[in-house]
Amino acid sequence: MTLRNYYIIIIVALSLAFTSCVDPYATPESNQNIDILVVDGFLDIDNGTVNVTLSKAINLSSPDAPPAVVAATVHLEDSDNNILPLGTTTTVGLFRIDGLTIDQGKQYRIRIKTADKEYLSDFITPTPSPEIDSVTWRASDDGVTVHVNTHDNSGKSRYYQWTFDETYEYTAPLLSPFIIVDTTVVPRPVDEQVFTCWRTLGSTNIAIGSSFRLEDDIIQQKAVHFIPKGDVKLSKKYSILVRQTVLSREAYDFWLNLQQTTEQLGGLFDPQPGKVVGNIHSINGDKEPVLGYFGGGQIKEKRLFIKHSDLPENLRVPRFSPCEQDTVMKKDLPLLDRSYYITSELREGPVVLGYTYTTRSCADCRVDRGIITKPTFWE
User: Fold this and answer.
1) What's the pLDDT at 3?
2) Which residues form the signal peptide (predicted)?
3) Are 3 and 113 part of one and the same domain?
4) Distance CA 89, CA 65 (A)
5) Torsion of CA 49, 54, 59, 62, to 10 degrees
6) Checking DSSP bridges between strand 159-171 and strand 237-246, what pairing results, if any?
7) Residue 203: inside a domain
8) SS3 label, residue 261
9) Contact 244, 162 (CB under 8 A)
10) What is the predicted pLDDT for the residue at 276?
11) Which positions of the chain have pLDDT values less than 70?
């Protein structure tokens, strides 16, 4: 989960935090002008990379994606006054440098310059992370919860964050084993099968945990994700790749504040959230708010698979398929709209008399934004 997933939520928080309880204010749904920089940056110790994404916040009511900030320069600075520029990438708004040797005895920060403004993060000390002990799952009447377990014998970690990518295999409601070539129905080539797909999604929830109140630095059965009963993700096979990083106390407080803010934004009469303060600041002599956080450390990963057959009986819910099929006789095939998908042959002995067909939404799994290429890690 990155800050880009939460830029709208943060704007709501700022809209509330910068106004008093008695003064009137424009609600987040209004068309007030917003010009606030959103920064999401991370220094990876093991890979020697720094990635910084820049964008601008937008109104909650806007249907548009957040505009990327392209006309900018980003530099990495260390506590010995070494300065390295980050280059732009093919991903709009992403600035990156790799091949670095990170000295964990130094501190690092980023400096951002746009056409007329400048921003600077606080210095951060990259933090190593212990390994993830295990990623497990537990079934309930309502669905499946994914848990993570970890520990640090040195007792130096204490504050943790988890993000993930989840990938699931699913099928279209109906199989289309044929295609139409000119006016002839032929078997669908293997590399053009559209019945089975895989889709990958990033995490959108904030998952953090702390052992600072415990004698030992141990995290046990921390829930990081929930998949509800009947979700297509559980229809065939599911995998989740959990990533773990260790946070500083300041970074933990930032994510905790943001987590509490998102939970409180249920309505106008909910408790007013506090101001979400990151570690990136405007140095233009004004009080311009900047949204985001620059962090650094190690990323530890562990993957889990869940098969549909592993689920308890109460969670093996068949997918509802409101799909219809119609019939076309062979002689009328040239008149059939080519947007339809052939699902079966109608035979009388060895003779093909016609075909059944359906719509693309019922026979092409790509409609649900999956891909037909099996991931390399798939078991």
Assistant:
1) 55
2) 1-22
3) yes
4) 19
5) -80
6) antiparallel
7) no
8) helix
9) yes
10) 76
11) 1-33, 60-61, 264-275
Strand duo 159-171 + 207-210: pairing: antiparallel
Backbone angles phi, psi at 264, to 5 degrees: -90, -10
- The verdict on residue 133 lying in a domain is no
- Radius of gyration over alpha carbons of the chain, in Å? 26
Which H or E run contains 118?
A: strand 118-121
| Residue 211 contacts residue 218 (beta carbons within 8 Å) | yes
295 contacts 251 by C-beta, under 8 angstroms? yes
Q: Quick one: tokens of 172?
A: 């279209």
Angle of helix 249-264 relative to helix 7-17, nearest 10 degrees? 80
pLDDT digits (tens, 9 = 90+) for 2-39: 554 554 444 444 443 433 233 333 334 445 557 889 99
Max Cα distance, the chain (Å): 85
Length of the chain: 379
Distance between CA 108 and CA 86 in Å, rounded? 14
**Per-residue pLDDT tens over the stretch 282-312:** 999 888 899 999 999 999 999 999 999 999 9
Residue 118 and residue 199 in contact, taking contact as beta carbons nearer than 8 Å: no
How far is Cα 213 from Cα 158, in angstroms, rounded to an integer?
Answer: 9
d(C-alpha 12, C-alpha 21), whole Å: 15
Nearest to 372 by CA among 169, 227, 137, 220: 169
Whichever domain contains 2, its CATH number is 2.60.40.10
Tokens, residue 60: 């909650």
Find the domain containing 364 and state its range.
178-194+318-368
- Work out the burial of residue 135: count CB atoms within 10 Å of its CB; fewer than 13 is exposed, 13-18 middle, 19 or more buried: buried
Query: Which two tokens mark 329?
Result: 């006789």
Chosen domain end from 298, 329, 356: 298
Q: How many domains does the chain have?
A: 2
